[in-house]
Structures are given as structure tokens and as C-alpha cells.
Design a protein that fits this description.
By secondary structure, the protein is α/β, with parallel strands linked by helices. It has helices at residues 3-33, 36-39, 56-63, 72-77, 97-110, 134-148, 159-171, 299-307, 321-324, 327-355, and strands at 87-90, 153-157, 182-183, 188-189, 194-196, 203-205, 211-217, 238-239, 243-251, 268-269, 274-280. A 5-stranded parallel β-sheet has the order 1-2-7-9-11, with helices on both faces. The protein has a two-stranded antiparallel sheet with strand order 3-4. Strands 5-6 form a two-stranded antiparallel ribbon. Strand 3 and strand 4 form a beta hairpin. Helix 6 (134-148) crosses helix 7. It is globular and about 55 Å long. The N and C termini lie far apart (67 Å). Mean pLDDT is 86; it is low at 1-38.
């Protein structure tokens, strides 16, 4: 071998060695920079949602419930013993509005909903501000679903109703191609945009997740003048497929939300979501609609609310005058909340039995989209 060829061979070997080390360094750096399982939560941090299920006897009673017709006793004796989805309350933008949603949160607990499934786990607040990032609320939806297997619900009042719709559109990817998980216990975003779906056991992006139920009352109008709500101009009425059931409430005359007689179809589905529009009587106040904490203490009012169904024609005129200014909204929202509480809990029980080999295939379809 000539000196020139020896030099060339040595250089070739040196190039191969250098290339190997560069590849190794890049590979290690890439592995170090990736969160566990391509951005999903580490296995040690995951929670098994099926571990929270009630005993078999309660499961049987739960599966026997009719979600469309749930009595006070059904809630007290059965649903209260089952896991409950997170109810995310979103209050309006002016100072006392948070007190209105606190009142509604207390109403829910007096009707039998677990307080721990409503209040923020870090701050203890009953509701979230419409000035929070909507991406934060979407991230909480993902965090809750991954841990519990139960899809949350969104209830928005005034500007909080606009925020509820914005969250649905965030989850649909209308404002970006990626959303990060948000841990409400630490009040921080996590460095991941995927979760492990508790039903399939596979990673999936936050984008595309759905909630089971959402509603808005008194949304729109003057709030469009605020910079944080400008993106919702000409979008508020569009309800994407990231919710199963959406109910939009408006008042017959609402100078704050700019709602006037004849303006009854404020919301529409852009796909397959089930959307209802309900116009409340003129006697309802934009600010005070959710001021409902005292309603369950009147036995007649409580019975009326529990007996209410969307296809019924219950007459509220026999109730006390103050109750009449709240019960139509309250009864409809409570009906939907307990219905989806039942549906989500039943789905979790059935999925657990499928997982354990009863009656079913090994794969379980995710309800979250």
C-alpha cells in the first residue's frame, strides 16, 4: 500500500468513527430531550381510573339507571357512590360574577354532586375566570380525562359562556395544532401535548379530545368589545364536534349579551354535536341567573327541579316567585349534568368489565373523540 493510499484509508476510518460518535450524541440528546413515551405522562405518574369504581353491587345498580330519568334517590343512593366527572364552572368577567357561579356550585353540592369534582384542587375556587387562557381549561380537560376516564363538563355564564365555546374550539384545533396538558394541582402546564387514553391505553393528542356536555348562558354582546374576546367575533355561534351535547341559553331581552326578541338560534353545530337553543323568560336577570344556592332547601322547588325533563311541560308558576326567576335554567343544566354523570360512570363500568374479559372484545373504544 502506498503512503497515499494508507493516508486515505486512515482518513476514511476516522470519518466513520466521527460519524458514529456524532450519531450517538444526537441520539442520546434526542432521547434526553423527549418526555417519556413521546410526550405522555411517565407510567409511574399515571392513575388507573378503574380503581375508583364502586363495589360490584353498586355497579349493577348504576348500570340499571335510566340516564334520562334520574330521581333524587338515584343521585343520593347510586350516583353519589360512583366516580363523578369534573364540572368546570366559568364565571363572568365583572367583579361579582364569580359569586354567582359559586352559588351554582353550592347548588350542585346540595343536589348531591361531589364538591371535590367542582372546586379547583389547588386554589379551592369554585369557578375559573374568563381571563384565564382558554388553553389552560382545555389542558385541564385532558388532565382530568386521563386520570379519571370521565370526560369533564363546561358550564359558562356571561363571558364565561364565551370561554366555554372557545375551549371547545381549542380542543377542535381551531386556534392551533397543539395543546399542552395542564395540571390544576400545580397550576402549571406540563411539557407534553399528548395523554394516554384510559380506554385504549394508547397515546393520543390533546387536540381532538371532547367533553360530554357544555352550556353557555348570556354569552356575547358587550364582551365582544374586550380584546381577549375579539377572536370569538363571528365564531361564538359555532359548536364543533368536541362536545356531545351543548345547550345555549339566552334571555328574551338581554342588553348585556345583545339579545332581543326573535334572536333564538344563537348556536349551531358545525358537525355532529347535539345543540339546543333555549330562550329564558324576560323576567330572568343576566347577572343573577346562576344565583341558585338556596333552591334545594325548598322541598317543592327541589322536587320540581328533579322531575324536570327537556321534553316535559312542567309549569313553574306554582313555585315561589324568586324560584321562578331561576328554575328553568337550573333544572335544564342539572338534568344534563346528572345525565352525563350517569352516562360517563356507566361507560367506565362497562369498559372495566370489558378489560377484565367479561362479555366483550379486548379493545375498548374511547368516548373522547
Amino acid at each position: 500500500m502506498t503512503p497515499a493510499s494508507r493516508i486515505a484509508a486512515a482518513m476514511a476510518r476516522a470519518t466513520r468513527v466521527a460519524a458514529f460518535f456524532v450519531a450517538a450524541v444526537i441520539g442520546l440528546a434526542g432521547c434526553a430531550g423527549l418526555p417519556a413515551e413521546s410526550g405522555t405522562a411517565p407510567a409511574s405518574a399515571r392513575v388507573d381510573p378503574f380503581a375508583a369504581l364502586p363495589p360490584p353491587a353498586v355497579q349493577e345498580r348504576l348500570l340499571a339507571l335510566d340516564p334520562d330519568h334520574l330521581s333524587d334517590a338515584d343521585v343520593r343512593d347510586v350516583l353519589a357512590k360512583a366516580p363523578a366527572p369534573r364540572v368546570i364552572l366559568l364565571h363572568g368577567g365583572i367583579f361579582p360574577a364569580y359569586l354567582m357561579m359559586k352559588s351554582f356550585g353550592i347548588f350542585l353540592t346540595r343536589m348531591g354532586y361531589p364538591e371535590s369534582a367542582i372546586r379547583d384542587p389547588e386554589s379551592g375556587d369554585w369557578s375559573y375566570s374568563p381571563y384565564d387562557e382558554s388553553a389552560k381549561i382545555a389542558g385541564i380537560v385532558a388532565w382530568e380525562y386521563e386520570r379519571s376516564g370521565l370526560r369533564p363538563m363546561l358550564i359558562g355564564h356571561s363571558q364565561g359562556g364565551m370561554q366555554a365555546v372557545r375551549v371547545l374550539q381549542d380542543l377542535a384545533g381551531d386556534f392551533g395544532s397543539s395543546l399542552d396538558v395542564f395540571d390544576p394541582r400545580s397550576d402549571k402546564f406540563e411539557a407534553r401535548s399528548t395523554i394516554v387514553d384510559p380506554y385504549t391505553g394508547h397515546p393520543r393528542p390533546v387536540i381532538g379530545l371532547s367533553v360530554s356536555y357544555a352550556s353557555a348562558v348570556g354569552a356575547g354582546g358587550a364582551a365582544f368589545l374586550l380584546p381577549n374576546q375579539w377572536p370569538m367575533i363571528d365564531r361564538l355561534q359555532d359548536i364543533p364536534d368536541t362536545v356531545d351535547d351543548f345547550t345555549g341559553f339566552s334571555l328574551g331581552v338581554d342588553l348585556v349579551a345583545w339579545n332581543f326578541p326573535g334572536d333564538s338560534e344563537r348556536y349551531r353545530a358545525t358537525g355532529t354535536a347535539h345543540v339546543r337553543n333555549i330562550v329564558l323568560p324576560d323576567s330572568y336577570s343576566h347577572l343573577f341567573v346562576p344565583l341558585t344556592a338556596s333552591l334545594p332547601r325548598d322541598l317543592a322547588v327541589r322536587r320540581w327541579i328533579n322531575a324536570w325533563t327537556p321534553d316535559g311541560h312542567e309549569d313553574p308558576s306554582t313555585l315561589p316567585e324568586e324560584a321562578q326567576r331561576h328554575v328553568l335554567w337550573t333544572a335544564d343544566v342539572w338534568y344534563s349534568i346528572k345525565r352525563h354523570w350517569c352516562l360517563e360512570a356507566q361507560r367506565l363500568v362497562r369498559a372495566a368489565r370489558m378489560r377484565d374479559g367479561e362479555n366483550a372484545p379486548a379493545a375498548v373504544a374511547s368516548p373522547a373523540g
